[in-house]
Amino acid sequence: MNSGNGQSTLPPDAPTTGADTIGNELTSTLASGEKGTIRSLIDSAMQNNPYFAAGGGLMLLGTGLALAKSGMVKASRLAYKQMIVDLEIQSRDKSYSWFLSWMSKHPQRISKHLSVRTSYIQHDNGSVSTKFSLVPGPGNHWIRYKGAFIRIKRERSAKMVDISNGTPFETVTLTTLYRDRHLFQDILNEAKDIALKTTAGKTVIYTSFGPEWRKFGQPKAKRLLPSVVLDKGIKEDIIEDVHDFMKNGKWYSDRGIPYRRGYLLYGPPGSGKTSFIQALAGELDYNICILNLSENNLTDDRLNHLMNNMPERSILLLEDIDAAFNKREQTGEQGFHSAVTFSGLLNALDGVTSSEETITFMTTNHPEKLDKAIMRPGRIDYKVFIGNATSYQIEKMFLKFYPGEVNNCKKFVEAVESLGSSVSTAQLQGLFVMNKDDPESAIKMVHTMKTNEEFVV
Length: 457
Hints:
Helix content: 25-40%
CATH class of the largest domain: Alpha Beta
Number of strands: 18
Domain AAA+ ATPase: 259-390
Strand order of the largest sheet: 10-9-13-14-17-12-18
Largest sheet: 7 strands, mixed
Number of helices: 16
Oligomer: single chain
CATH superfamily of the largest domain: P-loop containing nucleotide triphosphate hydrolases
Region (Disordered): 1-23
InterPro entries: AAA+_ATPase, AAA_lid_BCS1, ATPase_AAA_core, ATPase_AAA_CS, BCS1_N, Mitochondrial_chaperone_BCS1, P-loop_NTPase
């Protein structure tokens, strides 16, 4: 009903507000002592209040539902926090690759997203061995472990990159019930044990690849020290010096001396320099990082980075150091064409940013070509000549291949000494391998090792 001024008026007996209507109903109910329900009040309000009919009631109901939904979301989040637990493993963590390998072999696994991991090995004879293994790729996976269900989510970032190797940053998140959280530790321990078993009793060889160290081929069986025969006392002296260095870290620290040790093994080819380093690594339970100074795109910065980021418990090996620099100039020998400078090499060995707690072995066939700057203590602390086979070595190697053949051993030593030229331990080993279990034939073939080449110290 409209008044003369165009404003709407309500009948005298009509309620003025929704609150009045509800209040009157509540008053009437309480006064009469009748028991009503919340539903009857709401129905009464909706039927008698014109504001509900005009949409106000729907608005109130919508607001109520929104609040109820928000409460349910908060309650579910709270329940999730209380009942669910997550474990995140980042790709920069060592356990990341361990876990992926473990998961790829887990029998109770549901995966619809897979990635391929290729193992490529080129053998010395030119043949190639290739092995493909399928590992869980980015996406969601489910496993059942010790009766518990665990969701695994592998994510790859499109924006973040691991600066050490240039690969996309990744994370793996494990989710399970809070009561089963102890299983995370069990999984990580299993993954670690499996990974370590593959290298147990073996020596891992690393080579540089870009800014990082990568495993070269499969881990090699540890070479035993008795298998390498050096001249009397040489092997024992080096081992004693290495052990003395390893147990005196505090002594170096207390005196402000950089805790690193450099060794130079020099001598003719085939005298056992590299073989001894491999055997020493096995004795110490260390791995070997081989750094090729002639590698393409190797710069001073990269050299420094690699030497400061070696895998733990590793020996750094710089082979044929003379092939890289001759009197501070790049030699060009053996295709040397990297961007490493002589000063960059010196700084990496003994500069402000050089690594600590490192054992470095260098080998050379021509020590006379090395600059005095690289020979100084702090860069090379221990130098030893490992030459061609002496009578002592010839005897020890013969009896190692032919145990108990004492008489033939004397004949063999005399035959070698009568050649008039020295022979290397590599030549001796080759002769013994050619005449397995046949010492007489080995004696007859001594003349095949005669050479006119001599090594000049």
